[in-house]
Design brief:
The protein is an all-beta fold and 367 residues long. The chain has one helix at residues 2-7, and strands at 15-20, 36-42, 48-62, 71-81, 83-88, 94-102, 106-114, 133-135, 143-144, 148-150, 155-161, 165-170, 175-181, 191-194, 197-201, 206-211, 216-223, 236-242, 247-252, 258-262, 267-272, 280-285, 291-295, 304-309, 314-319, 322-323, 329-330, 334-339, 345-349, 355-360. The strands form eight sheets. Strands 9, 10, 11, 12 and 13 form a five-stranded antiparallel sheet that branches. Strands 1-30-29-28 form a four-stranded antiparallel sheet, with no helix packed on it. The protein has a four-stranded antiparallel sheet with strand order 5-6-7-8, with no helix packed on it. The two termini are 29 Å apart.
Length: 367
């Protein structure tokens, strides 16, 4: 009994392994204060690309293939950074945007592109050789929301903050177009592409929709869940689209509710509150359709891994991520998550010393 109590707060369903951001003798580690992971993206070839922030921002790759199972720092893409995101384009290239304050006010922005076609030479022949290419900057003076990529059009979408200006970015040409302004005092710093349209959440938690063909923003009338009287400060802190079920999943900031948007019925459904903490920090859809996320107020307490099963409505707090291979490590802050092509859930720690956590979901018993 005592042993079970000691385990009670940690993830015990499935398994977690830890990967440091670098490997002695193989790849230089990303230094302390520069290793906080703010973005993860899974590429079709199975690799995971990531972005850090801090004194310097690093762009890295993780390949789970057995002979390359470690993190490689591909280069520095910014200095004194506080945020940013990356996306994998349809042509196989990876693009990224990082930003940070200088002199306490001015926002400096870096834009980069990475071509993975020439990077892999194999351990038996040496190391990876490619490096990110810095691109012209169009965004100085603005912070940038999390990016959403439309594979059909090749456009990435985001919000310029402050100002709540929705923009599109075409990586191949470097063309950035300001599309429309989201009205209101508060807007959530995330957007999501679903069925060819861009969705986001504006003031008072109202869901908006941008139709690229019409070229205008529509307020849908749908409202994300919030505690009574908290509507005016509520935000969607995470959004992710499941193309199989045509459902957008989201999480809120002030209460930590999980919800989904049924696009066919044009309705928001609250799934519940998986932990007693506020702030759903990130979400991903697993290959089996279950939704995984991280909940926890930044800089307070410890993050929890949560899961929602749309088949039966089961919403579960899986616990605090704790890995023992290749080292013992408990995470406090997690701000990025993705699913790789094998169905593993990749978690990015965002702390002074950070790691990748690879979660292997439990296999369901045959009935």
């Amino acid at each position: 009994m005592r042993r079970e109590i000691r385990k009670a707060g940690f993830v015990t369903e499935g398994a977690i392994i830890v990967r440091t951001l670098g490997l002695e003798g193989m790849a230089s580690p990303i230094p302390e204060g520069e290793s906080g992971i703010i973005a993860l993206r899974a590429a079709p070839n199975g690799r995971i690309y990531g972005l850090t922030h801090g004194t310097r921002s690093h762009f890295f790759v993780y390949d789970p293939f057995p002979t390359e199972d470690f993190v490689i720092d591909l280069g520095v893409v910014g200095e004194n950074t506080t945020g940013g995101d990356i996306f994998c384009a349809g042509d196989g290239l990876v693009y990224g945007i990082v930003f940070g304050e200088r002199d306490g006010s001015t926002v400096q922005t870096s834009v980069f592109r990475y071509d993975p076609s020439g990077d892999y030479v194999g351990l038996e022949h040496g190391m990876w050789t490619a490096a990110p290419e810095m691109l012209p900057r169009h965004l100085d003076g603005s912070r940038v929301s999390k990016l959403a990529f439309d594979s059909d059009t090749g456009l990435a979408y985001g919000l310029l903050l402050p100002g709540n200006v929705l923009f599109s970015y075409r990586g191949e040409s470097g063309e950035l177009e300001k599309l429309a302004q989201v009205e209101g005092r508060v807007v959530s710093p995330v957007v999501c592409v679903a069925d060819g349209a861009v969705y986001g959440v504006g003031e008072w938690g109202v869901v908006f929709r941008y139709d690229p063909e019409a070229g205008e923003i529509e307020l849908t009338g749908m409202v994300i869940p919030a505690g009574k009287g908290k509507d005016y400060v509520n935000e969607a802190s995470a959004l992710v689209y499941d193309g199989v079920s045509r459902t957008i999943y989201g999480g809120t900031s002030v209460d930590g509710y999980l919800f989904f948007i049924d696009l066919e019925k044009a309705a928001v459904v609250c799934c519940g509150k998986p932990t007693d903490q506020p702030y759903v920090r990130c979400l991903t859809v697993g290959l089996d359709g279950r939704v995984y996320g991280v909940v926890g107020q930044p800089n307070r307490g410890m993050c929890h891994l949560v899961r929602y099963d749309p088949r039966n409505g089961d919403l579960r707090d899986l616990g605090i991520p704790f890995g023992t291979v290749t080292e013992h490590w408990v995470t406090h802050e997690i701000d990025s998550i993705c699913t790789n092509r094998n169905g593993h859930i990749i978690l990015g720690e965002n702390d002074r010393i950070s790691h990748l956590m690879i979660y292997y979901p439990a296999v369901e018993r045959r009935r």
